[in-house]
Amino acid sequence: MARHHDPAPSPDDLLEKTYTIVQLALIKDIGDSCHRLRWPARQLAAQAPNWRVINLASNAEERYAWAEKADLLVISQSRDMDLLPVIARRRARGLKTLAEYNDNFYDPPPSSNVADVWQSPVIHQCYERIMNACDGIIVTGPGLRQLFGGKTERPIHILENHHPQPLPAFETVWREPGQTFAIGWGGSSGHIADFLSITPLLRDLARQRPNLRLHIMGDAPLAHFAHLDESRLVFREWGAMDEYFDFLRSLNLGLAPLIDTEFNRCRSDIKAIEMGSQGVLPLLPDRLPYQKVLSETGMTPYRCHRELGEKILFYMDNPGMLKHHARRLYDYIRHHRVGPRRRERLRLYSAMLPPQPQDAKWDLPTGYHEIIGTPARNTPTSRILQQAGNLVDRREPGRALALLREAVETNPRHADLALAEVKLLAMEGDPAWRERLQYARRNFPGDLRFDLLELRHARTPGDHIPLWKKLLARLQRETPPARRLYAAEVSGLLLEQLRRAPELLETAVSALDLYPAAWSLKHEVALHLERRGEDTMALQYFKELLAARKCHERNHKFLSGTTYAWLHTWLNTLTERLEDNT
């Protein structure tokens, strides 16, 4: 006899029930937080008034308990590996989890405040494990969908950014140009190179048109690097979203430069929506994030800085066309890109809900809630690692190992726990460390920390050499930022082992091809080469060491105060200008 299945509930049936959606969110008055989590959650609660929609701070102590019992869990930009067991238990109970990532964390702009963190391949692997643990991924546009499509087989859903409120008629927001014509740009630290790439053009236009004024909203150094007469420049410090919209309302024409980088190809079109919603026409480059809005509005992009300059001059001389094109974009946003009018998030969340709400107690009414919760001082894993360390200090390694083994079994996809267990086994001389190392390697094939751990505990130079050869080959395939992450540990460990085992000399020479500025290792290699009679190569290394010493002596103060991000930002800026000119 065929088994009877209840029909799946219709979307309208789901709206009648009291479901609870928990989103683990960064609750701040900044663009990403507002556009991706806060404003959409408010709109969702208005569209489904019987639901309980909670934005809980992602660092709240309550996050694990609330995530466990939510009918739908949504996590944003998370690398919290302690959520993995929660997600697994949810799946076992038929409950789904969505993860949202709205940036290309593999290749951040050097000026971004998260650039240093995102250089780590270990962080990338954390993001990927969460992606693959969840039931679907939310992104902002086609660039991210294409990027993450190569990292996960989970379905990827584009939920675009929208203006948060219905818009009035165009005439209520339009401002005719006055005696001065205001063009402007606003952006966070991650956009600095985009803006700097067009500053020569802006200086040239300012010389041509005395009535042109440049308005900038951003970090304080930007005003200096525009190199405009102060009378031609209006600068505002970067602020909250209300302040940003107020800034946009001071403009006649908006600028949205975008260098063609891997990171920028994964951005959204939100700058066009933000500017257009305030009656400001943005001048958009011919880049992937803007292709849809360009196509659907009939706007013409610029393809080089010369064309950007021509467009600025055209609209300064043709205010009627400026108004006509600004109205066309505004009407598009008003009808198609206003959050309360859009229901794709409601449809996606509805499709992820169970047939019936969970029998969970919530001391909150239906509607939208923003809750900071109790700020957590540490994570469950950090507490376990601290407890294990305390046990080792008290000379109770057996209890520490038992604690770590239980933690690994509970969360087998957390590399830090596996690493701590193998490290302690090796330190205690337990022969099981090699078996546990191989187990960890199968779970974390891209994590080079396990290779370095094995090298630290390999018995003889005969064991070291093939392990080093394998590790250096893997590092060669890594990105330059990833190689930099391991530079100190690789060169330090090899230096330590070379002093005990001259057989590693050729290995050390190979490592210097990857890390030519590993000066202490280079010095040790040069001394070994001299002892072997290879004076020519030793001489070359000592010349390089002497040059480095002179450079350090002459430039120590400057180099100590100059960041990698600063230099790399100018590299990107000037490369864009030169490529544009060709």
Walk me through this protein's architecture.
Helix 20 (415-427) packs antiparallel against helix 21 and helix 20 (415-427) packs parallel to helix 22 (449-457). Strand 5, helix 7 (142-149) and strand 6 form a beta-alpha-beta unit. The chain folds into 4 domains: 16-160 and 342-360 and 367-371, Rossmann fold (3-Layer(aba) Sandwich); 170-336, Glycogen Phosphorylase B (Rossmann fold), CATH 3.40.50; 378-447, Serine Threonine Protein Phosphatase 5, Tetratricopeptide repeat (Alpha Horseshoe); 453-565. The chain is 55% helix and 10% strand. It has 582 residues and is of the alpha/beta class. It has helices at 11-16, 31-47, 63-69, 83-92, 115-118, 121-133, 142-149, 192-196, 199-208, 221-226, 241-248, 262-265, 270-277, 291-297, 305-317, 319-336, 344-352, 380-393, 397-410, 415-427, 432-443, 449-457, 461-477, 480-500, 505-514, 519-531, 535-560, 564-581, and strands at residues 20-25, 52-57, 72-76, 96-100, 136-139, 156-158, 181-186, 212-218, 233-237, 253-255, 281-283, 367-371. Strands 6-5-4-3-1-2-12 form a 7-stranded parallel beta sheet, sandwiched between helices.
Major sheet summary line: 7 strands, parallel
Q: Specify the CATH class of the largest domain.
A: Alpha Beta
Shape: flat
Q: Could you tell me how far the N terminus lies from the C terminus, measured between alpha carbons in angstroms?
A: 74 Å
User: In percent terms, what proportion of residues is strand?
Assistant: 5-15%
Enumerate the spans where pLDDT stays under 50 for 5 or more consecutive residues. Answer: 1-6
Question: CATH superfamily of the largest domain, please?
Answer: Glycogen Phosphorylase B
Enumerate how many helices there are, as a single number. 28
